[in-house]
Amino acid sequence: MSLPMQSRPRVGVPWRTAAEEAANRRSKIDKYLHAVENAGGEAVQLSLASTPAELKRQVENLDAIVLSGSPADIDPAHFRAKRHPATADADAARERTDFTLLEHALAADKPVLAICYGIQSLNVFLGGSLVQDIPTELGTTICHSPEEDEFPNGTETPDPVHGAQLEPGRVLKLSGSPRAEVNSSHHQSVLEPGRGLRVTARAPDGVVEAVEWTEGANWVVGVQWHPERMPEDALAQALFRDLLLAAHQAHAAK
Fold first, then answer.
1. What dihedral angle (degrees, nearest 10) is formed by the CA atoms of 28, 232, 118, 156?
2. Long-range pairs for 105-110 at CB < 8 Å and ≥24 separation?
3. Strands 10-14, 64-67: parallel, antiparallel or unpaired by DSSP?
4. 20 is catalytic
5. Amino acid 5: pLDDT
6. 132, 73 in Cβ contact below 8 A?
7. What's residue 2's pLDDT?
8. Which whole number is the average pLDDT over 61-83?
9. From CA 133, how far away is CA 124, in angstroms rounded?
10. Active-site residue, from 186, 187, 226, 248
11. Residue in 14, 5, 20, 116 with CA at minimum distance from that of residue 59
């Protein structure tokens, strides 16, 4: 059920990359904004060009955060690893924005839904590490990412879909089943979970598909798949609705 308009929590969503923001390429970021709005929230798009001071002022007026995906990769120096040849260039503005948002949200007990790049950003912020290239490091036969993002005619390539085994936690409760079908578009994943994070879903090849916060009651969930691209999927809808419910409750408790 949607929340009343006057009660809609304000959910901050950072641009995926500085380049997409500069060019106002909206096709992918809009999916996150629409998912928040459809779940009953007010989506607040956050610029990667904001100064730390500007961003801190903005985030104080937000009720929750959705960390979006990104074609960039996090600088492996953040988790003390040598750069893999397949690691994409980092986006320093996106890293700075995510880390500022997470610092505030975790300190203020504001809910966070971290998606794809977002789960990796969350994990690294909390001291965890990443698999830098799933195909070469794990040798899996499961397709986690299409070879190309677009067909020659410019239309988007469909995401690969595969199973995920859910372990006890919030995502399992929302799913109602220990197995889910999820979509993928990533070549990196969580390796060692960061402080306070527990793995609650894996693909059949062992790739981490979800993590959840364990140090307190705050709603913090990271998923490696893309629920914003699955608007008809029951689990995807439940994730955004539960985020908004947690944000509404947290705001009401202040």
1. -30
2. 105/59, 105/64, 105/65, 105/220, 106/218, 106/220, 109/216, 109/217, 109/218, 109/250, 110/62, 110/63, 110/64, 110/65, 110/218, 110/247, 110/250
3. parallel
4. no
5. 41
6. yes
7. 46
8. 97
9. 16
10. 226
11. 14
Confidence at residue 4, expressed as pLDDT on a 0 to 100 scale: 45
Residue among 20, 21, 116, 187 flagged as catalytic: 116
Residue 144 clears pLDDT 80, i.e. is over it: yes
**Token digits for 210?**
């979800």
Cβ within 8 Å of residue 187, ≥6 positions away: 86, 133, 134, 135, 144, 145
Phi first, then psi: give them for residue 120, nearest 5 degrees.
-70, -40
Whether the per-residue pLDDT at 114 is higher than 80: the answer is yes
Predicted confidence (pLDDT) at residue 153 exceeds the cutoff of 60: no
- Ramachandran quadrant class, 190 (left: phi over 0; alpha: psi -120 to 50; beta: rest): beta
Quickly tell me which residue has 């002022």 as its tokens: 57
Catalytic entry in 20, 21, 212, 228: 228
Report which of 74, 82, 68, 212 is spatially closest to residue 137, judged by C-alpha positions. Answer: 82
Active site residue 226: yes
What is the reported pLDDT for 146?
Answer: 79
- Residues whose CB falls within 8 Å of the CB of residue 55, separated by 6 or more in sequence, listed in order: 46, 97, 100, 101
Mean pLDDT of 249-253: 79
